[in-house]
Fold:
Amino acid sequence: MNYLDLPALKCASGTVKLPGSKSISNRMLLLAALASGATETRDLLDSDDTRVMLAALKKVGVGVTALGKNAYRISGCAGVFPGKDADLFMGNAGTAIRPLTASLALSGGHYQVSGVPRMHERPIGDLVDGLRQIGCDVRYTGNDGFPPLEIFPASINLDAPIRVRGDVSSQFLTALLMALPLTGKQAVIEMSTELISKPYIEITLNLMARFGVKVERDGWQRFTISAGQRYRSPGLLHVEGDASSASYFLAAGAIGGGPVRVEGVGRQSIQGDVKFADALETMGARVVWGDNWIEASAPADGQLKAFDLDLNHIPDAAMTLAVAALFADGPCRLRNIASWRVKETDRITAMATELRKLGATVEEGEDWIAVSPAPTYLPNVAIDTYDDHRVAMCFALTALGGVPVRINDPGCVAKTFPQYFDAFGAIAAPVIAIDGPSASGKGTVAQRVAEALGFHFLDSGALYRLTALAALRAGVALEDEPAVAAVAAVLPAEFVGEQVLLAGDDVTTAIRAEEVGVGASKVAAFPSVRAALFDRQRAYRRFPGLVADGRDMGSVVFPEAPVKVFLTASAAARAERRYNQLIDKGMPANIRPLLQDILQELRERDARDAARSVAPLKQCDDAELVDTTLLGIEQTVAAVMEIVHRKRPF
Ligand code: DC
Structure:
């Protein structure tokens, strides 16, 4: 896809399960590779940057076995890599090329290391200088100070401390720290400049400790690894969620009302980027912390405040603040972010250029950027993303400030978050909830409204019908709540155009049968069945938007929906419609139920749907009532569209 158009969005709320942390994933993979014993990693990030690392490790002889979704077994080499000759392509992954280069330089082999053209513009000189001081033979095959590199076997001498700069990237220090235990000797590193992005070093030290290697630290000045320490596998490790990726969703809650909750990082996180939540709080956002989650909502008065912050400790997440600044109440300044210049692109220039396109006034310096909000922004601006995942992700937030925006090359998010726009849609795409009793015409109306708007459509009743049908087919008694819930949890249902499939079998007509409808109404009364279908229904919330039809769309499944409609009609009118439908379908009179029996059955079903303890059928307070007793389909669609236009959810 060349671009993605995001409409002006009104609100964001919901929960996002974060993908694994990039920083932790790539460090963990390398440490597991160098350790003795096998390590099982769970919840690893699945993205370009981790794929690059996995591929490189395999090439140098590390055993990598996929164990299922985002889980791997890494068979450690108990020291240096066994593969002594390899040509390694590292894409644009800084977290892979830097640490790997240091470990390769100590592995006694001949290696070539290269990346995409931008990687060949990203500095690595400070690391190579550090490695050369101890005797490593690392040569530049392109420009001095930059990849590509060629590495040769060498003898290592650790008698003197290694002096290394820490003011361009903290990854050089991380790379040395992780590699030096391979020598088995005492190693000392001294910083020759100030160290930036310190929290990333804390991640490194924390993970090294989990693999059994302790580093003594003198402030942020001197690091000592005592002799004889070796990496040992801790066995099983879980990767926490990515705190940098969390920033977009937390900001979405702050800009778009919220609450938006991210799961996978929280109070217990070892990632410095969780401090982004504090910066957001400085802007007035309301933030709540759990052990493994963080939640953000807009300020009580709805207005984000201006800020002037040193963001050296959260350089990646700080980009998100530059976009949030568009909606602050005054000029905002982001300071001490020089590392932006040597990331995936020159991020200071990129952010300034794109923010200006929208109409903001932006000033920039060598290591700072200042954003002055404008009263209004230009709609439908095409944002260039410079093959930088974070530019694409943070500019999506513009839409939540009510500014429709085009994101060019949205696929670049695959570097760290391939499903980003789906996850963003799941909290921000507009939802139109249409609830009401059986035969109120809402199915047809909801489908027509979805077509008119070009939105996705969720027929939630079909999921309950499918559950009942699947249970009946499996011989499960509809009264057996746990068994029916188990059926619902793994329902093999698919919607392909107009067709409904159950385990590949076309059941489009079968689920409309009367006994299936009655069965659906029974199983729908079970709380555990409703819980089992909840996430599945929420997953329909995607760009450009969703029309959801059911009984509890507005009250339970999408309580945040900006448009809620309750469609109803008198029981007599609904019974008559159903009766006429049967005639239209050609059902012969001798097997056709009597009108009064249909009416009786509808009343019973209404009573059951309304009386159940969970998600009973009722009009919620913020839903608009449309009585269709005297309306045809066209008139009802028009009435709903009038509500949609009046509420302007996008
Ligand atoms: O809309 P429908 O007739 O296809 O729904 C079938 C049954 O499923 C209905 O009796 C109530 C139940 N249902 C529900 O409980 N919650 C929903 N969101 C949708 C349907």
Remarks:
- Residues 438, 460-461, 464-465, 517, 520-521, 524, 550-552, 605, 609 surround 2'-deoxycytidine-5'-monophosphate (CB under 6 Å).
- The mean pLDDT is 96.
- The longest helix spans residues 595-611.
- The longest strand covers residues 257-263.
